Amino acid sequence: MTLCPSSHLLPLSNSPSPPPMAASLTTSSAASRLLLLPSASARAPLHRLSAPHSTNTSLAASSSYAFSPLKCRRYSPLPPRAFSNQRASSMSTVAAASDPAQLKSAREDIKEILNSKFCHPILVRLGWHDAGTYNKSIEEWPRRGGANGSLRFEIELKHAANAGLVNALSLLQPIKEKYSGVTYADLFQLASATAIEEAGGPKIPMKYGRVDVSSAEECPEEGRLPAAGPPSPADHLREVFYRMGLNDKEIVALSGAHTLGRSRPDRSGWGKPETKYTKNGPGAPGGQSWTAEWLKFDNSYFKDIKAQIDEDLLVLPTDAAIFEDPAFKVYAEKYAEDQDAFFKDYAEAHAKLSNLGAKFDPPEGIVLDGVQGEKFVAAKYSSGKKELSDAMKQKIRAEYQAVGGSPDKPLQSNYFLNIIIVIGVLAILTSLLGN
Fold this sequence. Notes:
Belongs to the peroxidase family. Ascorbate peroxidase subfamily. Keywords: Calcium, Chloroplast, Heme, Hydrogen peroxide, Iron, Membrane, Metal-binding, Oxidoreductase, Peroxidase, Plastid, Potassium, Transit peptide, Transmembrane, Transmembrane helix. GO terms for molecular function: heme binding; L-ascorbate peroxidase activity; metal ion binding. Residues 182-374 form the Plant heme peroxidase family profile domain. By secondary structure, this protein is mostly helical. 39% of the residues lie in helices and 2% in strands. It is built from 15 helices and four strands. It has helices at residues 30-33, 100-117, 120-131, 154-157, 165-178, 184-198, 233-244, 248-255, 265-268, 300-307, 317-324, 326-337, 339-355, 390-401, 415-434, and strands at residues 25-27, 65-67, 262-263, 288-289. The protein has a two-stranded antiparallel sheet. Helix 2 packs across helix 6 and helix 12 (326-337) packs across helix 13. The termini are far apart. The model is unreliable at 1-96 (pLDDT under 50).
């Protein structure tokens, strides 16, 4: 698995190529062809799902683009022409919370892109790769990695596992310029969740308000993303996803996002050049998909991996591992039989992944549709531990703020009400004692 939807990244082989900014890009380089691989030796991460190409022939290129080696652009988030209408200072300023109204409008623009470019897989992969660098053992932000918008910088884009994601950035950059009140970190996760939903998947309980890193120096080191064909696939998946704080159920559920996309051998090293399912597109033809309907989000991935009777469908070593490893197999079998169960678990896992390592402003985040993860239950936080996690503190703070206070500032006492309560209690005690 690559960090595609879950710990691996979605296929990228059909990702649209950059428009005018292509002038600042240069083709080839071994690393640029490895869609999701963390390293050249790890040949193709699970989530190298190719993002479907646009039917527009002008977007025929692919993820084989790499940035120009010009030193003066070494730390720029994207090629020069991509930001021709944007002030340079905006690239180095740490953004505050995103604006809810602009987030909603940006979501509608993303839907239009999805409908015209068939780029669902690559947008899912973009969000996953930005969040998938999270290391739970590191507390300091942004050194811990995660969903912080760092993937917009060239130094991280050039990581082997991120080859081709410049195409996703070129699709979203016009939206970012249109809605300056939306951070890159939020935009990446908004695009990823919207792509899943628009492909027929479950509603993801997202929250927004992620803060962006301010410079390329804050990007994580290379090597935190998963590979598709490691020597011990199941062990590798656990090593990478456990580091993020995810469990076996979440690993398998996220793997199910491979129901979207296709892989191309000339870009990732995996898959066939063409199959009966991909020879006619949509978008640029070619590549090998995991499922027959590779732009539809359902549980076909689990059914097809289990059956393994169609040679035209792709099965990576990390895909096969979910039905070979005893612990993974329990969930894979369940999802193959019960799509509702898969959708439920996937939505929760995707939302969790999208929040990894993020710093929110406000701390409780911004909810667009009144749907946000699990319901707050005070009893869950009565663990007796001296120190709560940041996530728990944020939930408790949000609950307090809903009634006018916060964990840092206790609610003011209503002395009149307290006196009434004391008098009432004394009256009851007097009555009981008198009887």
